[in-house]
Amino acid sequence: MSLLKLEDVSLNYHSPKGETIALQNISFDVNDNEFIAIVGPSGCGKTTILSLISGILKPSSGRIIRNDNSENFIGYMFQRDHLFEWRTIWQNVILGLEIQKKKNSQNFEYINSLLQKYGLYDFKDKFPRELSGGMRQRVALIRTLALNPKVLLLDEPFSALDYQTRLNVCDDVNNIIKSEKKTAILVTHDISEAISMADRIIILTPRPAKVKKIVELDLQKYGTPFQRRECSEFSKLFNEVWKDLEN
Question: Domain 33-55+68-246 belongs to what topology?
Fold first, then answer.
């Protein structure tokens, strides 16, 4: 059974000038522990799909089915880390627990274990300005994981980083997601990023966005996202996705 399923989901925007169809009959499912990437032309509605899945927006028609009753089903990681510069790393990471009034020893123990496992424990009393861009993104991800969500929504989380840092952070984030056995949905405009990280790629048409194609990938055997970029199938897959987006 799928963990998450979208069935013929459409979204229309209304304004004084009339109605705009943003998404049209979007259907796909997401399995437990799967990594899905969504790519499509700029402005086609990729982030809108994440907003629908998270419940920020409601579909005009169709259904979004969650086959899990976890209290914190969704965790959201944005384009920028949105760390508060006046709070320490520890204070940033526990922000969600503060808001939900869930500060307790068990949750603190879990966060400490994440900080230790992913090389940030010695920086817990530092401020965000004292960390590199890659470390800040790891902090942002651990802040999202602190509430133990079932599904992570990643909205172009590497776009603000320089290219070299971006490659390293892709490996870091992929390692954390796999180690913590999380399901992830990544929105990106970077084809290479999608191929190197995902199990499946959902390709969207221009607005009104429809699912044009779903590409199955089998690159996990090559190791990290960086290592997958060097495998023999990578360029073929890149050209396949590129042509689908161009046409």
Answer: Rossmann fold (3.40.50)
